[in-house]
Each structure stands twice: as structure tokens, then as C-alpha cells.
Design brief:
By secondary structure, this protein is an alpha+beta fold. The protein has 6 helices and 14 strands. The longest helix has about 45 residues.
């Protein structure tokens, strides 16, 4: 196909004259045309990308913010776990330390340390909704944990002061495990393994093979050491201040243990067994205060961790059977 020529009108000659393009000029014109169009199109593209996606620095900043948000989401799990641990310590403090020592328990409302008034986290409202929400949640939970820890520290300080002022009395209080075995059954209504009906189980059952060493849980004087009905071989220690402990189904007593013998907390006093009415070898342990049975689990505060207490509590609440 022939090249299409462009014409211009020559007034002097009164005719159309073809436009002559020199190769160099035509090449320069073409390059200029495409260069200008390329610049315009690139500018439009960059503008559209910046509007919809962002500049490289903005893209990097968005990626960094996403990483930080993901990290905060992970931190939430740790905060929730920390709150759970603190709740267990608070329960232990109320049910064991303060209750056993006769101190007034701290109420749930006081322990939660709530605050009111102005919105102290309004500064986070300047961020996106997602960012603002997680920052508010994290800041409020951490502040609450800090306040609850302060209350817990004050409680422990009060307990420490009470202990320092009542060391003689507390040395007589039964406050350790009588045997090293794990808990098998707890205090309360339980189905008797032999009689097959529900009855009050007035102590704790610990796993213990025949001949396992049994220890006095507080300073005191042996009140009884001998055979007694369904208890089998029974050791009874009077700790004074209204406290009496019982150790049942024993296979025997330690040397020198008889009525009137003085014993110290942690002293080996007997051997576990399977005497009396019992499903199998174990140690049955009771605490009585002024003649009334109480849950010995709340008196193990000098010998178990909060995690162990929670585990023992779960066992006690979920096992409907006793060993005796």
C-alpha cells in the first residue's frame, strides 16, 4: 500500500502541495510523540497505584502495622493466660491463706479493681477501628492486671505480718501434706466403695502403698495411736488451738509414737496401709477444728503450688467415689 501523504495548500501557487518528511525529522517526531504519551500514561498509572495501593513507603508501613497487629493478637492469648493464673492465685489466697488464718477474704469486686469515670483510652480513637479496638483491649487488661497484682501484694503483706505475729500458733497449724502421694478423693459427699451408698467423707484420700512414710502436718501431741473401728490403725494428733488431725488405715506407727508423744511438723510418725474398711492401700487424712471436720485441702498452703492446688481441687470435685 502506498504511503499516505499529508498536504498543505500553497496560496501562491493556488494548489495543494505534499508535505515532505525527512527521515530524521520523522523519527524525532515519532519518538517525541511516544515519549510524551509514555510519560503521561506512566504518571496516570503511578497516580492510580498510589491511590489504590499506596506508595512503596506506605506499603511497607501497612505491612509493618499488620505484623504489629498480629503480634498483639498473639499477646492477647498470653494476657488471658496470665489473668487465669492470677485468678487461681486469688482463689488460693481467699480459700486457703486468708480463710485458714482467720483473715477476712477479699471480695471479687475489690479484687477486680474496676475503675470508672472518664475514658482514659480515648487516645486510641485516632487509629483505625481494628487497631483502636485491640489497643484499647490490651491497655485496659494490662492496667487491670497491674491493679489486681497490687491488691494481691497487699494481701500477701497482710498474711506475712499475721504470720510474723502468730508464729507459735501457726507452727501448730496442720499445713503440709501428710504423705507424698497424689490425691485420690476429696472432702464431701462421696459413694463409699464397700458400702455402696453416698455418705459424708470427712477427709482426703492420698495414694500410698503399704509402708509409705506418713508425716505430722503440724506441731502437737499424740492423742491416740491404736485400732479404731472402720479407721483401722489410727493416729490422732492434738495440735492445740482447737486443731486435731487423723491419719487412718495405717500399717503401723513409727518408733516412739504413743499417746502423749510430742511431735513436730514434718516428723515421720507412721506408715500407710490398708487396715479397717478400705478399698485398697492409701492414707485417709482428716482435720478437725473444735470437734468439727473441715476440708483439709484448704490447709495445704505451706506445701503446694497454686497449680497443684487447682489440680487437687479438680480431682476432689470430679471424683464421686472415696477410698473408704
Amino acid at each position: 500500500m502506498a504511503d499516505k501523504n499529508h498536504f498543505y495548500y500553497d496560496h501562491d501557487k493556488c494548489e495543494f502541495v505534499p508535505v515532505v518528511y525527512y527521515t530524521k525529522k520523522r523519527l524525532l517526531h515519532t519518538l517525541s510523540f511516544w515519549l510524551i504519551n509514555g510519560i503521561v500514561l506512566a504518571s496516570l498509572g503511578i497516580t492510580l497505584l498510589s491511590y489504590n495501593i499506596g506508595t512503596p513507603s506506605e506499603i511497607a508501613l501497612k505491612a509493618e502495622n499488620r505484623t504489629l497487629l498480629d503480634q498483639l493478637e498473639t499477646t492477647k492469648v498470653s494476657i488471658i493466660d496470665l489473668e487465669s493464673r492470677l485468678h487461681t492465685i486469688s482463689e488460693l489466697d481467699n480459700e486457703m491463706y486468708r480463710s485458714v488464718l482467720g483473715l477476712e477474704p477479699i471480695s471479687y469486686e475489690e479484687r477486680m479493681a474496676g475503675i470508672g469515670g472518664a475514658d482514659i483510652y480515648s487516645e486510641f480513637d485516632f487509629y483505625s477501628e481494628e487497631t483502636s479496638e485491640i489497643l484499647r483491649w490490651t491497655a485496659s487488661r494490662l492496667d487491670n492486671i497491674e491493679r489486681r497484682l497490687s491488691i494481691q501484694k497487699l494481701s500477701f503483706d497482710e498474711i506475712k505480718t499475721y504470720y510474723n505475729e502468730n508464729q507459735e500458733r501457726l507452727s501448730h497449724m496442720p499445713a503440709i501434706r501428710p504423705v507424698a502421694g497424689i490425691l485420690l478423693s476429696g472432702y464431701g459427699m462421696r459413694v463409699h466403695p464397700v458400702f455402696k451408698y453416698q455418705r459424708m467423707h470427712e477427709g482426703l484420700d492420698f495414694r500410698a502403698d503399704i509402708g509409705t512414710e506418713v508425716f505430722a502436718t503440724g506441731d502437737g501431741v499424740v492423742k491416740y495411736a491404736g485400732r479404731r473401728g472402720t479407721y483401722g490403725n489410727l493416729l490422732e494428733i492434738d495440735h492445740g488451738y482447737g486443731y486435731i488431725t487423723r491419719y487412718a488405715h495405717l500399717s503401723g506407727f513409727a518408733d516412739g509414737i504413743r499417746t502423749g508423744t510430742r511431735v513436730d511438723r514434718g516428723q515421720m510418725v507412721a506408715y500407710s496401709g490398708n487396715t479397717g474398711v478400705s478399698q485398697g492401700p492409701h492414707l485417709h487424712y482428716e482435720i478437725r477444728i473444735n470437734g468439727n471436720s473441715v476440708d483439709p485441702l484448704n490447709f495445704l498452703f505451706a506445701d503446694i503450688t497454686p497449680e497443684e492446688y487447682k489440680m487437687y481441687r479438680d480431682i476432689a470435685e470430679n471424683n464421686p467415689m472415696s477410698m473408704d
